[in-house]
Amino acid sequence: MAKEGHRGTDLEITTIYEISKVLSSSLDLSKTLRDVLNLLGSQLGIRRGMVSLVQDSGELHLVGAVGLSDAEVQRGRYLPGEGLTGRIFASAMPCVVPNVAEEPLFLNRTGTLHEVGLDGDAAFIGVPIKAGGTTVGVLSILRAPDRRRSFERDRRFLTMVANLIGQTTVLQRTVTADRLELLKKQTRLQKQLNGPPRGKLVFDDVIGISPIMQRVFSEVHQAAPSRATVLLRGESGTGKEAIARAIHVQSDRKGRPFIKVNCAALSETLLESELFGHEKGAFTGAHAERKGRFELADGGTLFLDEIGDISPAFQAKLLRVLQEQEFERVGGSRTIRVDVRLIAATNRDLEKAVAANQFRADLYYRINVVSIFLPPLRERREDIPELVEHFLAKFNKANRKELKIAPDAMVVLRNCYWPGNVRELENCVERTATMARGTLICEFDLPCVQNRCLTRALHVPEQTIAMPLDRTATQSADASTHTGEPGRVVGGERERLVWAMERCGWVQAKAARLLKLTPRQMGYALQKHNIEIKRI
Q1: Considering the chain, what is the average pLDDT of its residues?
Q2: What is the CATH number of the domain that holds 320?
Q3: pLDDT of residue 332
Q4: Do residues 151 and 98 make contact, with C-beta atoms less than 8 angstroms apart?
Q5: For the sheet containing 258-262, what is the strand order?
Q6: Over 60: is that where the pLDDT of 166 sits?
Q7: Separation CA 534–CA 15 (nearest Å)
Q8: CATH at 388
Q9: Torsion-angle region of residue 28: left (phi > 0), alpha (psi -120 to 50) or beta?
């Protein structure tokens, strides 16, 4: 008996050695687990061997087996605590059942208990698969009774095998995750090296396939690597902050802070404290020392939005910081030096402000080193469909929905005037998606079709809709144009006509009703202003 015991021990050691070689031979986990179970079957006479591993869902799936068909393997799924396998996983304790046919917890889910000589008194032995103190699966076997082998000996041996499987499983998953991350990085690097497809320049979170936006992207690419101050110009809502962030990300400062301040939202006193910081006790309520945005942006980029709205007195203070790259906190005397790249933005006509002595000329030259103009949305309509899809995808992700937009609704959105630009478009998409009753957004779901358009409420004066476009008005418009005076009448009237036509999909009768005109008045006005009817 002693010799039999020695031979059994030698066989187990040899089997462990062979199993360790198999587990280290490949990263194909399913294949290596099948090979391990085949070794157990050939060396120890096991008729059924199974490895179940926990999935991201928390369910145990049979991922390796011997003596089972593919269909039987697919049926081998258990919840934690369900059956013998689920109980072993949940308790992290081994389990030995001498006669599995008499065990009510044995579910026989694969349906193979009564095959190949296992009917009657087949024994079940299962052990948890652990890695780093965490249970990641279950190793189990079914074998015929054998008085020469004790159940305790088999349990100890299977525990050693399970430990090897656990280490290999964690290693394989780690290597796979690392490889996927490396592939992602390689893909991103390859895109950067090769450039975007079809010669298009792209930025994260900035959409623009239109030629005019591609010129903007080209200017961003050229200006970003330098230290030059950039002035972003354009109407409100055109995406100046997104472009400012793109410049920062494309520069060598991308690993440093990107700090933004809206100058129009703060009074002169608050703006000074916000940008330069203050010392403790500098003013009522200054209970502690506070760093300003310039300090927080040290080494990075500071984005000053609506810079055209700062007061003349503060303009002088800002000019000194930009020239000297130093300042003192409010209530302090210690000079603080910083290294900050400035990106400014405005929707104002700074040249007129300088001429009217409302904006310092020296500050104007200091911030207007590189000027990038962002076009209004109505001048880059090619981008509207992609913007709509982007905002809709963003809404779907945030609200766990799967809304789509119908072609007729996209036509309406593409032909709107959008005085609020990209910001208004995003608002419209979100409002429409929120109130949509089905999964497909159609034309009649849009606020403008339901006479609930924010553009009409905010950007079209009441008298605009009520006032007929008569000959007197157009004559006055012509007169103002010829005299060189600001074209309030002609400009406003022509834009109003275009706005109405775009809002109504260039259907003249609908546009006439929107402006409360007769079709004849509408036709005359369009002809007078040389507005060509688009065919959509």
Answers
A1: 81
A2: 3.40.50.300
A3: 84
A4: yes
A5: 258-262, 301-305, 341-346, 230-233, 370-373
A6: yes
A7: 81
A8: 1.10.8.60
A9: beta
Question: What was the pLDDT predicted at 396?
Answer: 94
Residue keyed to tokens 């905002």: 391
- Per the structure block, which two tokens stand in for 258? 């990107």
Contact 278, 330 (CB under 8 A): yes
Handedness of CA 69, 75, 79, 82 (dihedral sign): negative
Cα 439–511–410 angle (5° rounding)?
25
Strand-pair category, 230-233 with 258-262:
unpaired
Asked if the model's pLDDT at residue 6 lies above 60, the reply is no
Q: What does the pLDDT look like over 254-285, one tens digit per residue?
A: 999 999 999 988 888 889 889 998 888 777 77
pLDDT at 379 over 70: yes
Determine, yes or no, domain membership for 182: no
30 and 169 inside one domain: yes
The DSSP call for residue 282 is S
Q: If you ran DSSP here, which 8-state letter would residue 483 be given?
A: T
- Cα separation, 173 vs 445, in Å, equals 47
Q: Does residue 534 sit within a domain?
A: no
Mean pLDDT computed over 511-515: 83
**CA dist., res. 143 & res. 342, Å (int):** 75
Tell me the three state secondary structure of residue 280: coil
Looking at the DSSP bridge assignments, the partners of residue 405 are 441
The Cα 16–Cα 39 span in angstroms is 10
pLDDT above 70: residue 505: yes
Spatial separation of the C-alpha atoms in residues 177 and 531, rounded to whole Å: 59
Predicted confidence (pLDDT) at residue 473 exceeds the cutoff of 50: no
Alpha helices in 297-452 (DSSP H): 312-324, 350-355, 361-367, 384-399, 407-414, 421-435
Q: Kindly give, in sequence order, each residue whose CB lies less than 8 Å from that of residue 54, ignoring residues fewer than 6 positions away.
A: 60, 89, 135, 136, 137
Number of residues that make up the chain: 536
pLDDT computed for residue 183 by the predictor: 65
- The answer for residues whose C-beta is within 8 angstroms of residue 190's C-beta and 6 or more apart is none
Whether 192 is in a domain gets the answer: no
Condensed to tens digits (0 to 9), the pLDDT of residues 350-369 reads 999 999 999 999 999 999 99
491, 343: one domain? no
Q: Which of 215-219, 268-272, 532-536 has the highest mean pLDDT?
A: 215-219
Q: Which two tokens stand for residue 515?
A: 């402006």
